[in-house]
Amino acid sequence: MTTTTAADMKAEIRALGQCFWAGEAEIARNFLTAPHEPGDHVHWIRHQCYRELRGPGLLKRAHSRVQWIIDNIGDTLPAAESKEGRDEFEYQLESLRQEFTHFRLFADILEDITGEPVRMSTLEGLRLPSDDRIEATRSRLIAEDERIAHIAYSFAEGGGAGIFHAGAALETDDPLLLRIQRASRVVYDDEVGHGEHGVEAAESALDTEEELETLRRMLMEICTERLRMRSEMYGQEPDEARIAEIANGRIDPLPVI
Ligand SMILES: [Fe+2]
Ligand SMILES: [Fe+2]
Predict the structure, then answer these.
(1) Which of 63, 65, 125, 223 allows an S-S link to 56, with CB 3.0 to 4.6 Å?
(2) How far is 84 from 106, CA to CA, in rounded Å?
(3) Are 114 and 177 in contact, with CB atoms under 8 Å apart?
(4) In this structure, are residues 222 and 202 in contact, taking their beta carbons and an 8 Å threshold?
(5) DSSP at 169
(6) Cα(86)–Cα(83) distance, integer angstroms
(7) CA 136/CA 130 separation, integer angstroms
(8) How far is the CA of 157 from the centre of ligand 1 (A)?
(9) Which ligand number lies closest to the CA of residue 100?
(10) Contact 104, 49 (CB under 8 A)
(11) Residues with CB in 5 Å of ion ligand 2
């Protein structure tokens, strides 16, 4: 009889993440390496700008990191009273600054393509079918187990920067793609750190097999939904057969770049 230990499950969960991040990269690579006019990039870049702001709560969102910071300040900064709290508060402030930089890098490109200002009303109005499903899943998982759900979302944050891995690895002399490549490199370097922070939090906070099984189940749901979202953002129908293959590990891991 084989027994599964918590250590095995942590390794399995890490490997699961790697498959999904490679899946996000595959979807982006398919789009970025096909011939396109500059205007064809507007939809995905606009959507990514929205995600960079909404993810941390720079555009209003329940249970967001911005809200956590605001609530902490409202409660006279309890986070500042312990080593762990100070670490966490500083991390959250720094990662907020990084998310705004990610937005800015792509917003600048977007503005140059369209010749128009980047309006928040346009970003917020751009909701893909997957955005509503993602929001509904998030509320449901938070209601089921708030602590593990937050750990799962932190783990899945940015999808392991898969789409930026694909962007940063572009080999091109096209001026627009070169800008996308350079912006992707910056985001990739930050987001790999955010993902690692989430993975480490998961590994240190969860110890029982039951908790790890809940995390694995939540990640499976969140990450498959993220693959559908990426397809929609690049204007493609989600390929359910390929998504199932990716979830079952039939994909090469991303090389280090
Ligand atoms: Fe980001
Ligand atoms: Fe991030």
Answers:
(1) 65
(2) 33
(3) no
(4) no
(5) T
(6) 5
(7) 10
(8) 8
(9) 1
(10) no
(11) 158, 191, 194
Q: What are the tens digits of pLDDT across the range 112-131? A: 999 999 999 999 888 888 88
pTM equals 0.91
Considering the domain delimited by 16-247, tell me its CATH architecture: Up-down Bundle (1.20)
Please give the distance, rounded to the nearest whole angstrom, from the Cα atom of residue 194 to the centre of ligand 2.
Answer: 5
Q: How far is the CA of 190 from the centre of ligand 2 (A)?
A: 7
| For the chain, domain boundaries | 16-247
User: Quick check: helix, strand or coil at residue 102?
Assistant: helix
From the CA of 48, the nearest ligand is 1
pLDDT of residue 67: 96
Quick one: which ligand is closest to 186's CA?
1
Q: Which amino acid is at 228?
A: R
- Per-residue pLDDT for 2 more than 70? no
Closest listed residue to residue 189, CA positions, set 106, 53, 98: 98
The pLDDT score that the predictor gives to residue 3 is 64
| Length in residues, the chain | 257
227 burial level (CB within 10 Å; 0-12, 13-18, 19+): buried
158 CA → ligand 2 middle, Å: 6
Distance 187 CA to ligand 1 centre (A): 6
Q: What is the pLDDT of residues 191-243, one digit of tens each?
A: 888 888 888 888 899 889 999 999 999 999 999 999 999 999 999 999 999 99
What would the two tokens of residue 97 be? 């600054």
Split at pLDDT 50, 70, 90, the class of 1 is very low
